């Protein structure tokens, strides 16, 4: 009886091994078949050091050896995620074997990866702040990001320089635009609006091919993946087109309910510093309004609205958004304050219940608190992210994972918080 048992165990072991071998051979042939034409990024190497400048050199430098696995000096500087059919790393390779990842990758290859679109408007002295915001998005995010950066012309070269030095990350893509108005009656817009303050209102009209967009102010910091707020788009019901957080939790210190001379959304208004938009729906919708009895489209409502309320608005485009959603409340998805956490939530005692329970998801350092000493905690988080180092990985096409757009197990994040 005992001998019988041993034979069974032996057979099982042999069976398992041959299965493993067959599987690995299959995976190799799939790999080779897919290797050539895919056009997938060939190597991902990341190394952010404070300031971003040095990162460029290292990223470019380490991309070389990855293309020629076999050099013995590669272990010194970076780690490698290596594919080997026998599930063992060759002696000269340090790092992680990607056996399962490669198999998994094949099964997912057919699904196109959705990009998260993130827009920001940067004017004046906001370069460093904007880059820190983008960095916080890159550090935590899972899906690839597409940045839409609207900036004054004199900032373009600086943005290009730094973002190109990060491009070895291969988890993002960016487009840089001048401050722009819709081509129809651009001149009239320019006369009426302060260009930088109102740019975001025109995003649905300028980015015509983009379905959905997350707009954020430059003084935003992501403390968790952008994917998380992006997933709220799927929670919109059929009438909702945009999502924002309330301007205040506590009406006694609210601004709109005490001072506004125009209509506003809900009890205390909404804050537009973090605004999630399904722009397809915004472009399609006809909006109720208090100017005519007919409903107007997004492109037609802004100008008459501004003309009517020009003398009564204080916070520019945010006020216009409040007026629009006052008349169309069914179109707004209101997310809790932890997605747009501002000093107002803790200045006069803590009044963001959700953040107390679940934490802060997106930090909004308005009133300049990243740069003065009024709110040391806000400033500390800003500086930690600004100085954060991200050190990574080399991944040739064989080791590249579409799951995470890199070798996930090899991504090291060192942020000094
Ligand atoms: C970056 O965006 C362009 C279009 O703007 C696209 O063709 C290209 O494939 C993108 N790159 C990556 C790595 O996704
Ligand atoms: C602007 O504010 C004034 C003073 O509060 C008010 O009388 C007027 O009706 C407001 N204008 C509009 C268009 O609401
Ligand atoms: C935005 O709305 C359009 C039209 O309803 C829909 O087809 C699309 O899937 C929505 N986008 C997202 C990201 O949910
Ligand atoms: C969608 O949600 C909003 C806000 O909760 C609500 O006012 C609206 O009636 C809902 N629309 C539908 C079709 O249920």
Automatic annotation (TrEMBL):
Tree of life domain: Eukaryota
GO molecular function: UDP-D-xylose:beta-D-glucoside alpha-1,3-D-xylosyltransferase activity
EC number: 2.4.2.42
Membrane topology type: Single-pass type II membrane protein
CDD domains: GT8_like_2
UniProt subcellular location: Membrane
Residue runs in coiled coils: none
Keywords associated with the record: Glycoprotein, Glycosyltransferase, Membrane, Signal-anchor, Transferase, Transmembrane, Transmembrane helix
Pfam families for the chain: Glyco_transf_8
Protein function: Glycosyltransferase which elongates the O-linked glucose attached to EGF-like repeats in the extracellular domain of Notch proteins by catalyzing the addition of xylose.
Protein family per UniProt: Belongs to the glycosyltransferase 8 family.
Protein name per UniProt: Glucoside xylosyltransferase 1
Lineage, broadest ranks: Eukaryota, Metazoa, Chordata, Craniata, Vertebrata
Gene designation per UniProt: GXYLT1
């Amino acid at each position: 009886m005992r001998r019988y048992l041993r034979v069974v165990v032996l057979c099982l072991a042999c069976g398992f091994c041959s299965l493993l071998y067959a599987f690995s051979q299959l995976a190799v042939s799939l790999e080779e078949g897919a290797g050539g034409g895919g056009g997938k990024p060939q190597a991902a190497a990341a190394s952010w050091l404070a300031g971003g400048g040095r990162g460029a050199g290292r990223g470019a430098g380490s991309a070389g050896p990855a293309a020629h696995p076999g050099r013995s000096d590669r272990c010194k500087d970076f780690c490698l995620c290596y594919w080997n059919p026998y599930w063992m790393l060759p002696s000269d390779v340090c790092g992680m074997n990607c056996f399962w990842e490669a198999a998994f990758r094949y099964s997912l290859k057919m699904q196109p990866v959705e990009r998260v679109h993130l827009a920001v408007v940067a004017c004046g002295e906001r370069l460093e702040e904007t880059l820190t915001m983008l960095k916080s998005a890159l550090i935590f995010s899972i899906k690839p990001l597409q940045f839409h950066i609207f900036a004054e012309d004199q900032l373009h070269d600086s943005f290009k320089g730094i973002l190109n030095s990060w491009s070895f990350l291969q988890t993002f893509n960016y487009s840089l635009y001048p401050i722009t108005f819709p081509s129809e009656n651009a001149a009239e817009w320019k006369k009426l609006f302060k260009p930088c303050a109102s740019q975001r209102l025109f995003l649905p009209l300028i980015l015509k091919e983009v379905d959905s967009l997350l707009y954020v102010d430059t003084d935003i910091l992501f403390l968790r993946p952008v994917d998380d707020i992006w997933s709220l788009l799927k929670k919109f019901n059929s009438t909702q087109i945009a999502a924002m957080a309330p301007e205040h939790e506590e009406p006694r210190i609210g601004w709109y309910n005490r001072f506004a001379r125009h209509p506003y959304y809900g009890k205390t208004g909404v804050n537009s510093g973090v605004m999630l938009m399904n722009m397809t729906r915004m472009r399609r919708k006809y909006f109720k309004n208090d100017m005519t009895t007919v409903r107007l489209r997004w492109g037609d409502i802004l100008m008459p609205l501004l003309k009517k309320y020009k003398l009564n608005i204080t916070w520019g485009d945010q006020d216009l958004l409040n007026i629009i959603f006052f008349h169309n409340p069914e179109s707004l998805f209101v997310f809790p304050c932890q997605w747009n956490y501002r000093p107002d939530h803790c200045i006069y005692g803590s009044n963001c219940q959700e953040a107390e329970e679940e934490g802060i998801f997106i930090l909004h350092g308005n009133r300049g608190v990243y740069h003065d000493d009024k709110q040391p905690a806000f400033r500390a988080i800003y500086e930690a992210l600004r100085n954060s180092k991200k050190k990574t990985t080399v991944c040739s096409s064989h080791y590249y994972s579409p799951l995470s757009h890199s070798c996930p197990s090899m991504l090291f994040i060192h942020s000094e918080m």
